[in-house]
Amino acid sequence: MSHPLYIAFIWHQHQPLYKxxxxxxSLSPSQHYRLPWVRLHGTKDYLDLVLLLERYPKLxxxxxxxxSLILQLEDYIAGTAFDPYLTASLTPDEQLTxxxxxxIIQHFFDANHHTLIDPHPxxxxxxxxxxxxxxxxxxxxxxxxxxxDLLAWHNLAWIDPLxxxxxxxxxxxxxxxxxxxxxxxxxxxxxxxxxxxxxxxHRKMQEAGQLEVTTTPxxxxxxxxxxxxxxxxxxxxxxxxxxxxFQWAEDIPRHLRKAWNFYKDRFGxxxxxxxxxxxxxxxxxxxxxxxxxxxWICSDEAVLGWTLKHFFDRDGAGxxxxxELLYQPYRLQTAEGDLSIVFRDHRLxxxxxxxxxxxxAKQAAADLVGHLQAIAKMQRDSQSEQPWLVTIALDGENCxxxxxxxxxxxxxxxxxxxxxxxxxxLVTVSEFLEEFxxxxxxxxxxxxxxxxxxxxxxxxxxxxAKNRAWDYLTxxxxxxxxxxxxxxENNPEAWEALYAAEGSDWFWWFGAGHSSNQDAIFxxxxxxxxxxxxxxxxxxxxxxxxxxxxxxxxxxxHAPQGFIHPVIDGKGDEQDWDKAGRIEIGGARxxxxxxxxxxxxxxxxxHLNFYLRLDFKSGAAPGQDLPAELNxxxxxxxxxxxxxxxxxxxxPDAAPLNYLFHHLLEVNLLTxxxxxxxxxxxxxxxxxxxxxxxxxxxxxxxxxxxxDLQVPPxxxxxxxxxxxDEGRFCNYLPENALIPIEVP
Length: 744
Prior knowledge:
The protein is α/β, with parallel strands linked by helices.
C-alpha cells in the first residue's frame, strides 16, 4: 500500500527569563522585568498560530511551549509583571522623566519597520522623524501628544492582525492619533486578555487531538554543556574551552523534572515529547531523558549527518538526496531503555524562518507545497514499504515579524493547500510514532554531540566572552554546591537563580555571532541571575559581576550573522542590513586607502539571492569620483568547470586578480544597467540572461538570484569586485582577499 507523505510541523515557542531576581544597590532592577518580549510576542505570535490552525481541522501539528515562557505569561496575566516599556506606556504623558523620554525615543521603534511600523501612518511618521532628524531633534521638538501616540502605537502594532476585528482594537487603529493614558490602559488590558487565552487554547486543541504540546528543560539550558563543557570539542576538536570545566550533570534531571511537573500541572496530562534546548543532544543526556519518562526528542539533520557520517547533499532544486535517511524516525538504544528521535529538514525549516517572508504569500506557500510534493513523488518512486515523515521545526515567534500581516496570508494559503492535497498528511509526532514506531536504530553512544546550528556548540561556547560567562557560571555553581544545606525546598531563590543563569540565551548573545539593540541588557540580566545565587546564600558577590562580561560596541568587520532580505532601492535601510557581513574599505591601508570613495561593503544571503551593498562617501558621483563600471566576478573553489580571466585591460598579474572566474556581472553605475556573462572555452565570455536587481541612490544595492549562478544549496563560492572605466582596470576590493559566500 502506498502511504501519503507525513509531515510534522513543530513550532518552538520560547523566551528567556527576563524577570530580574532581586535587588542590590549596584545592580538594582528598577523594574521587575528587563524586557517586554514575553508580553509583545504573546499578543502577536502564540495565540494566532493555533487559532489559524484550528480553522483547518484535518491539519495536526506540534507546538513546544518552554516552561520559562509560560511562567512569565502567567505573571503578565496576573498583572504582577512590569517591564520598563510597560511602565512608560502607563505613565501620564506630563509625568514622563527626561530619562524615560530618551528611552522611549531609542527603544519604542524596536520592531521591523516594514511590517510593524510602516503600515500605520502615525507610527511611520514618528519613525521617519527619528530616522531623518535624529534622536536629539525628537527630544527637543516632540510634544506630549507625540509621546502619547508613540507609547500607544508601540503596544498596538504588536497586536496580531487576527484580532483587528475586535471592536475596541478596530476603533484604536482607526483613531490613529491623540491617544490618552486611558486608551493605553485599555490597550494593556486587551494585551492581558489575549495572553490569558494562550494556554487554555493549546490545552483545548490538545484534548481535541489536533495539537500535541511538548516541553523543554525548565529554563532552556543546553543539556550537553551542563553535562560537560568539553562536549564542545566533539564537533570542533580545537575549540578553546573555558578555564574551568563545567560538569554538573546532576542539574539535568532537575531541569527535566521541573519541566515535567510544570507541564502536568498546566495541561492535565504528562508530556510525551521533549524539545531539547537549541535541539542540542549528546549521548550523556539520553539516560536522564529516558528516566524522566519522555518518549521522543527532536534534533537537526546536521546532527543526524554527523551521527551517520553522511552529508545530506541537495539537488539544484534544494531536495535532499537519499531522502529515506532523513525522513524517518530513529530509535536511540541505551542501557536505560530506548528513545525515539526525529530530525528536521533544515532547509525547509529555514525557508519558513528566513526567506518566505520576502516572497508574495501565495507564491511562498506554493513553493513549500511544491517541495513537499517533490518529496512525496520521491517516496512513491522509491516504492518504500515504510512511510516517510518530513519534520519541519523552527522558532514559532521570531520569523513572523518579517512577514506582512504577521504571516497570516502565508499560513492561510499554506494551510488551504495542505488541506486540499490528499497525498500530504500533517500529523503530530506522537501520532506518527504510535502508528509507525521507529524501525531504524542508532546506538545511543553513537549519537553526535551537537545542536541545530551547524551541528556544533560554537554559538554558545568557545570564544572569549562566551567562555568568560561559563567561568562565572561555574564559580557560582560551585558556591551553591558548597552550601549543602541550601536545598530547593528551603532556599528556592538560589536554585531558581541558578536555573535562570544556565539558560542558553545569555551565551547566544555574548561574543561573536549575534548582536542586538539589547546586548547590554542581556549581559546585565545574566549577571543579575548569578548575583541572585550569592545573595540567596548570604555570600559576598565577586567584584567581576559588577562589570559587563564584554564591552558592547559596534563591530566593524564581521561575517554575516543571519539571513537578510533587503529591499533593493539604493537607500541602505539599516534594519535590512543589520545581519549582513561587513567589510570596512575606507580605512584600509594600501590601494583602497582612507581617501577611498567606497567606505564599506555589506554582503549577505537568503535562499533566493546573494545581496551586496556599497556605501560611498557623501556626494560621490559615478563617472567622476568613482569609476563607472563595477564587475562582480565569481570564483568556485574545488569545482571543475570552464573558467576565464578578468576581461579588462591592465589587470595586475597578482592574486586574486589573476584567478580564472566562471561568472561575471557587470554593473554600469551611470545607467544602472547590467550585463551577465558566463565563461566559455578558450577564455571567452558568453552573454547570459540575469534577473539581478540593482539600485543606486545614497548607496548601491544589488540582488543576484542563485538561479543565475546555477549552484546547488550548501555550496561555497568566492567573489571579488573590480572597478573599471571604459574596459580598463582601475581598482578592486576587498583588498588581497575574496568574499567568502555559502549558498544556503
